[in-house]
Amino acid sequence: MLHVLIHMDKRGGKTTSETIALMLGTNPVVVRRTMAPLKQAGLVTSDGGAGGGWSLARAINGVTVREVYEALGSPSALAINVAVDHKTCPVEQAVVAKLGAVFQDTEKFMLERMRDVTLGTLAEDADQI
């Protein structure tokens, strides 16, 4: 969604669910479902009908990655996690205890850093590439 929001800013005006769906290779219905919590969080607005579409509600310099993350339901910030398949296994217990704490600390650090990164900063970085 960060990618989509930055593109919306660069396009200016309104962006339809159909256009966003093309960007993401998905269905416009999926786009509307995904954008709904962003709208509830006050990050985007929408207008229906002819000439309608999605718009940013605020300047991207005032929107943090953390706000987008939270609006989307705070999914796991890490793609890896510890598995608990054999609760009675002492090796698994040791691994889960040690790595679980590491992953929690890492996620906490990432979430704090997300407060300092705005979509505007990401857009500027993209312009440099």
Automatic annotation (TrEMBL):
<protein>
    <submittedName>
        <fullName>Rrf2 family transcriptional regulator</fullName>
    </submittedName>
</protein>
<dbReference type="Pfam" id="PF02082">
    <property type="entry name" value="Rrf2"/>
</dbReference>
<dbReference type="InterPro" id="IPR036388">
    <property type="entry name" value="WH-like_DNA-bd_sf"/>
</dbReference>
<dbReference type="InterPro" id="IPR036390">
    <property type="entry name" value="WH_DNA-bd_sf"/>
</dbReference>
<dbReference type="InterPro" id="IPR000944">
    <property type="entry name" value="Tscrpt_reg_Rrf2"/>
</dbReference>
